[in-house]
Design brief:
This protein is mainly alpha-helical and 114 residues long. It is built from four helices and two strands; from the N terminus they run ββαααα. The chain binds zinc ion.
Length: 114
């Protein structure tokens, strides 16, 4: 009998994609992050100074100009959440369990992500 030791599969700690599914995977102490998640982080950081400045202090043009960045951040974050849920579904995790983790009903989880 041959003892086989399989290399532990590396995956992004944020979106759960394996090193085979992403272009780059960066290692930190006990965590990994993929290129796509770094991109999302950058979008969040780009938007952060705008939020810190405070909306009341911003001109109409500044507020309007910040809308696309805010929307891109929401879209990118939603895409990660969707990918995470698709991975859970691939693992045959029920909508009931996913709903519980999100604090919503099975029906609401299914309607939102299926
Ligand atoms: Zn990732």
């Amino acid at each position: 009998m041959i003892a086989m030791q399989r290399r532990r599969k590396l995956k992004c700690s944020f979106c759960g994609k394996s090193d085979k599914e992403v272009t780059r995977l960066i290692a930190g102490p006990g965590v990994h992050i993929c290129d796509a998640c770094v991109g999302i982080c950058n979008k969040v950081l780009e938007a952060a100074p705008v939020v810190r400045a405070g909306w009341p202090a911003m001109t109409n043009d500044q507020l309007l100009g910040a809308l696309k960045v805010a929307e891109a951040t929401v879209d990118a974050t939603r895409a990660v959440l969707q990918a995470q849920i698709e991975e859970l579904r691939r693992r045959e995790i029920s909508w009931e369990t996913i709903g519980q983790a999100l604090g919503i009903s099975r029906q609401a989880a299914w309607e939102r992500f299926s």
